[in-house]
What does this fold into?
Amino acid sequence: MPHRLLHAMPGAWKRRYLLRQSGGIQGCDAFNLAERLKKTQRLLVAWPTRAEDMLLAVPAVKSLREALGEGVVFGHLAEAALGPFLSGLFPGVPLIAWDQGSLAWHEPAVQNCLASLRAFNPDTALGLLDPFPPVLQALVKASGAGVRIAIDPKHVSWPYANVRIASDPSAPLAGRYFQPLGLWRYAGFPAEERWSRIQPDDSQRKAVAENWAASGSAPEQTWLYLHATASGPALDPGLHALLREKIQKREQGNFALGLLHWNSSGEELQREGVWRESPLLTADGLGALLGIMDGARGVVAFQGPALHFASLAEVPCLALLRKEEKAYDVSPWNPLFAVSEV
It folds into this structure.
């Protein structure tokens, strides 16, 4: 059958097809979880599909990396659009990419992904996706991983996951990503819920110093508003007043409020009123962003990837979250992170 015609088949038929192609129900017998985890030499991590969710999962994966030691080889399974971002956070780690636009088992891109997974040959797989697309579940199973862990039973079907961790959908995402560490502690590994810090690259320091000097402000006296997307709030006097009000509720003494524009791509910023006189710094990459934030008095941002990258830096971070965004609160794990509701 031409593979394109498989898209037109009924859902139940496609589910059975997917199960057959990924190895059927074999390999789901009972096993000693602690012993299997102890024998893991190759671990596959299937990452979330949103950049901010991925950043919230970074501390859990780094904690697991420290607990298992350098003898265990990690591999990453991530959406292609986030691949470069992930490679910057974990340089040198094998990355296997999948494409949302061709996520069907019979598509050539998925078969190439399957070949890469089988070549990596993981012993254990940790799925952090929610929801977890069935085709990706099948790919993880077909990779040969004997232990397949998922953190949300509602979205993961047996036999694709043979270890499932119940989670509270209303709980902070960072806590949900830390939950699997309990399995490794059960197996005797010292896996701690430790928040990660990313240090700036020394090669960026000179450029960063020039950036600060050009802004006409001192880092130690400046709170930075991290403006990352064109779809964010307008840079008008009302926003400036709101940010100062939020910062003053936790700040002692005088401070300057500067603007840090991330991934500007050469676009011209539309600044109104007091923003035209505010210190302006720009960063086009993760290294430059991290370097500018390092040493600043603090960073304030709305919900988004920029906020959660800032939470991994050694800098006070004030998150402006709506009530429905409470899942993105990482203050229980990061003492430099505070939340103000907007």
